[in-house]
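Title: Comparing notes on inverse folding

I've been comparing how different people in this forum approach sequence design from structure. To keep things fair, I'm posting one structure and asking everyone to reply with a full sequence. Here's the target:
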């Protein structure tokens, strides 16, 4: 009799130990599940964002591609934040504003009503590669293709060969030729008209990122070349073939302005509605030394 009682007690104790082990296992599994839930709650969105959200470079490209001349200075500030610097265009009511950001800089020249007449973007970041759709239904690629191939057509057209699309008017300025840094500007041959909303655009290379020097621009003035591509010296042709542009400029002539580029690569706006005609000159078409911090893009 005593033996059976002891055996029963031993069996009950075994069941209790087994039950305690199961309870501890259940608690451990519960804690583990709770921890997994917490981690998923905290880390899950970050992983999801990483997998689904566009990269910073992609977002920046989209942001920049939506900007253009003809918008208001306030709309630029709403997108980019407040300008890092502003100054008047000498002898005029126009304002030159600069927005310097981590891997790009934007410049605007706005009229007295706050409408942007010139908009330009400078990018020294080889990974950014922004693109801009022009009012002439072409796309300008910065940092991606050489200057000789930087412009492509939005519409299939057998006549729009790379040579035709990239035949522009050249204003090439080495450093020291009336400028603090080099500017190699190319201006579209598609002049302002109703079909392009009276816009012009340009592209090229600003020496702010890497101050280039092109030897033997012209025999009479080695510091600059102003003219067409067919007459350009071999050094210019080679430069265009091997160098990607780093700036783009969009110019709104507002129907009534006659636009030109002076011998130092600055924009000139002439209004013939008055007699004598009013002239606003010295308008920057790209950013260069003196307009952005010295170490920008370095």
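Reply #1:
Here's my take.
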């Amino acid at each position: 009799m005593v033996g059976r009682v002891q055996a029963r007690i031993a069996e009950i104790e075994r069941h209790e130990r087994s039950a305690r082990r199961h309870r501890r296992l259940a608690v451990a599994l519960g804690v583990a599940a709770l921890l997994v839930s917490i981690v998923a709650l905290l880390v899950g969105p970050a992983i999801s964002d990483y997998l689904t959200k566009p990269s910073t470079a992609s977002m920046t490209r989209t942001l920049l591609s939506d900007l253009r001349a003809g918008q208001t200075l306030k709309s630029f500030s709403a997108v980019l934040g407040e300008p890092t610097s502003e100054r008047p265009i000498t002898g005029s009511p126009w304002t030159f504003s600069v927005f310097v950001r981590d891997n790009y800089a934007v410049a605007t020249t706005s009229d007295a009503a706050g409408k942007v007449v010139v908009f330009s973007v400078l990018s020294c970041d080889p990974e950014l590669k922004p693109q801009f759709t022009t009012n002439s239904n072409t796309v300008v690629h910065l940092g991606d293709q050489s200057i000789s191939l930087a412009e492509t057509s939005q519409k299939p057209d057998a006549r729009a060969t790379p040579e035709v699309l990239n035949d522009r008017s050249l204003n090439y300025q080495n450093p020291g030729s009336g400028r603090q840094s080099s500017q190699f500007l190319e201006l579209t041959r598609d002049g302002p008209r109703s079909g392009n909303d009276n816009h012009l655009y340009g592209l090229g290379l600003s020496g702010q990122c890497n101050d280039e020097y092109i030897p033997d621009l012209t025999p009479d003035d080695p510091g600059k070349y102003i003219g067409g591509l067919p007459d350009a010296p071999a050094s210019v042709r080679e430069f265009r073939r091997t160098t990607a542009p780093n700036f783009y400029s969009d110019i709104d002539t507002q129907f009534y302005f006659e636009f030109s580029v002076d011998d130092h690569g600055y924009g000139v706006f002439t209004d013939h509605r008055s007699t004598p005609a009013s002239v606003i000159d010295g308008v920057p078409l790209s950013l260069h030394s003196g307009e952005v911090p010295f170490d920008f893009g370095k």
